[in-house]
Amino acid sequence: MMQTIVLAGGGHTHLEVLRRLTAERDTEVKWILVSASRYHYYSGMFSGFAEGLYTLEEIRIDLKKICTDKNIDFIEDTLQSFDPEKREVVLSSGERLPYDRLSLDIGSHTAPDKIEGLTEKQVQIKPAHLFPDRIEACRKAKELVIIGGGAAAVEMAFSFHQWKQQNGRKYDRVTVIASSDLIDQKSDAVIETLFNHKGIRYFKNDVAVKVTDRYVVTEGGEEVSYNEVIFLGGAQAPELLGESGLPVDEKGFIKVNACLQTPDDSKVFAAGDCAALTTHPELPKSGVYAVRQGEVLHHNLMASLKREGMKDYTPQRRALILLSAGGKQALMLYGKWRQFGSWAWWWKDYIDRSYMKKYQ
Ligand SMILES: Cc1cc2nc3c(=O)[nH]c(=O)nc-3n(C[C@H](O)[C@H](O)[C@H](O)COP(=O)(O)OP(=O)(O)OC[C@H]3O[C@@H](n4cnc5c(N)ncnc54)[C@H](O)[C@@H]3O)c2cc1C
């Protein structure tokens, strides 16, 4: 009897699952990809795109084309909810799809309701497919404020600053508001030096609490004027995960075991940002980990249908981070090492382009 695997979301992990599927495969299994967008957008190249170094075609992958080539059903729609008891997903169009196995890779959001006024005022760049359309407002903002002090926030500050420098907007200002150190304790001094050198303003160890029509207000009493504000202060869980009734962690991300399977329902799998690994609850929400989960997820979805042995996902102990600092320079973060230079950018560019070539 034909069995159906529904892949919900065209994120980094599902892209790798699609790559591993061949057109000639088990005819008893039907694969369906439901994606909010026809394209997968590669976040590793967001900074270069914001800076103007890459074109749109260079940072995205046509999921519909891959599906057509590989005989996979492609539905451009948004997953609204899923019902583990009825074993069906409900799409925004109202369509209901029954499944034998469901895999979720729907990423995360950046819409914090903890900061008063931000939800209405921010330029929302996640889910990932929103990013290309939204960056123009940030490039052209006289005062751009980025809330967040992690790798994504720092990298985007460098990129928008660089774009402004090169496009006749030297008098615009980019400001970062970070509730802790810049990236981490080991990177803080390097980032501060670079920010000071480039003229990027920053407030550290201060928390944004409110966004009014004109200012981002911090706990420390700063009133930072803005034309556009972006929140990059951490990933938020899509609400539909918790609404399913399956266990979620304290932030609302769906719990999965080392096989990327939800512990209460062996028919549901999840990976990437939307999943909370019970074996590694502190795993950062990062594309680097999402990509590596693809091989395990691909194997386990098939193995679980065939009742064969499943693989465990073990995250790499240390991830190499190459952070673009604008102007074709980058900072390498690896364990306790911090190194800066043009060579790091060329290395990052090579890795990112090679990654894209695998799928394009
Ligand atoms: C500005 C920025 C820069 C970043 N840079 C890096 C970096 O350089 N390196 C790195 O490792 N990480 C980076 N990250 C983090 C990285 O983006 C995420 O960790 C990564 O995208 C997670 O991959 P994913 O597969 O979970 O989901 P995503 O790649 O986000 O994909 C999820 C997909 O699901 C779709 N979707 C969402 N909801 C639904 C729904 N209900 N139904 C159907 N489809 C849906 C979305 O449109 C999206 O295409 C960055 C993040 C940001 C915000």
From TrEMBL:
| Cofactor field | FAD
Its GO biological process terms? aerobic electron transport chain
Query: Signal sequence: where?
Result: none
Keyword field contains Nucleotide-binding: no
Domain of life, source organism: Bacteria
UniProt keywords, alphabetically: FAD, Flavoprotein, Oxidoreductase
> What is an example of a GO molecular function annotated in this UniProt entry?
NAD(P)H dehydrogenase (quinone) activity
Segments forming domain FAD/NAD(P)-binding: 5-294
- A Pfam family matched by this chain, by name? Pyr_redox_2
* Keyword presence, Flavoprotein: yes
Q: Which residues form a coiled coil?
A: none
Q: Which InterPro entries match?
A: FAD/NAD-bd_sf (IPR036188), FAD/NAD-binding_dom (IPR023753), NADH-Q_oxidoreductase (IPR051169)
Q: Which family does it belong to?
A: Belongs to the NADH dehydrogenase family.
Q: What is this protein called?
A: FAD/NAD(P)-binding domain-containing protein
| Organism per entry | Jeotgalibacillus salarius
